[in-house]
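My main concern about presentation is that the manuscript never shows what a single data entry looks like. In essence, backbone conformation is discretised, so a fold becomes a row of integers matching the chain in length. An entry of this sort, consisting of the sequence and the corresponding backbone structure tokens, reads as follows:
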Amino acid sequence: MSPDGRHRPRVPLRLRRGPERWERQRSTWREARPAVIDGALKRALARRAGNWFVLGAARDVAPRKPFGRTVAGVEVVAWRDAAGRLVAGPGACPHLGAPLAEGAVHCGTLRCRWHGLALDGAAFAGWEPFPAHDDGVLAWVRLDAAGGERPLPRPVLPPRPGPAGTLVAVHTAVGACEPEDVVANRLDPWHGAWFHPYAFVDLRVVGAPTEAGTEGPDEFLVEVSFKVAGRAVVPVTARFTAPEPRTVVMHLVDGEGKGSVVETHATPLAPDDRGRPRTAVVEAVLATSDRPGFALARAAAPLVRPLMRAAAGRLWRDDLAYAERRWQLRRSGRYPG
């Protein structure tokens, strides 16, 4: 029996009856109207982020080693201070410009490997820290000059399941596109069963915003089954929303894993050596379940997390190809949307 009183099978899997071949499944191109996707994208891009950008997984910023990333063209270094708090600031040493990400952290102090200049997170010798935030899953940095908005004291975070019963994995991938191309991909749920047949089947969008977004909730509601093996699937209902311009969130609202969340964050980086924009996709999966067996999965988290990241990596190899193609079409004036 589930918490809401409904009977639930002992095993979450279902067997599809009469599965269709890929080429015989129902076409979705008529439903995936460009005006609906572009309207949802424009409304997402108009929302405030307060100049906050995702650096990476919180676990990536370890106690003894600095973490470096160029965000929106700004070289950033991050590390943990003596209390374990996240610190971030310009990635160039104020002395002679050495890369601070190649330094070392000792007792919460970052030392430049060129001449030993020490930074404890406070302003020093012209070096000024950036506002930083660790939400327990992701590390964020606020870049007011790059963001150009009115700053917010904290990042815009979606509702998440409580940490006590949650298994978390974060995957990062990089593509030659802009953040809006990643967000547009996530605001097109209709492509799932066609573009990712190894992962999704029986996909149906049962709710979508209007083109202008003035009626009803600004969300996509999707019924879909995750493929496990053969005819075995796990059916769920998912809701997609965009709380800020560089984030799309999927909440599982019904089915196995109800309450789980997948957050997709798009962080602009520096252009590549050909001048093309680059975007980091930082995807956080926060899985939860009230089934007794899920406690075993959490206990085996070091083994399960790589599998979760591998699954996300396979999906994003495809989805980054989608995002990169969209950027190429936009750049050449051939985008049909």
Notes: The radius of gyration is 21 Å. The helical segments are 34-45, 144-147, 179-186, 192-195, 293-299, 301-331. The CA atoms of residues 278 and 287 lie 29 Å apart.
